[in-house]
Amino acid sequence: MYVVHSTFKAPDNKADEVIAIYRNRSRKVDTAKGFVSFRLLQHHKRQGELTVELQFETKEDYLQWVRSQEFKDIHDLEKKYPDQELASIVPTVRQFEVIINE
């Protein structure tokens, strides 16, 4: 299992707007080879601190996704979001190999 976290800080007053965007996401990743799950995590104290968690069966499946045209299309749309404050957010991406999964 391969897990990727993309963590970013949105202004607290815009956290609900960002959450709504993810509730209405395109779901293109859901059909990617090896895709397992998508989660949006919100920090328990800092409302604007959000983490997108993706799980794939393998690192290779994840890399195939990020090299795909669908991935590029989604991220191009993000850059064109009308709220430039949100469009300019750059996440910190961390990648993990699952060692123990009980």
TrEMBL record:
GO molecular function, one term: monooxygenase activity
Source superkingdom: Bacteria
InterPro entries attached to this UniProt entry: ABM_dom (IPR007138), Dimeric_a/b-barrel (IPR011008), Heme-degrading_MO (IPR050404)
UniProt xrefs under PROSITE patterns: ABM
One Pfam assignment: ABM
Domain ABM: 2-90
Protein name: Antibiotic biosynthesis monooxygenase
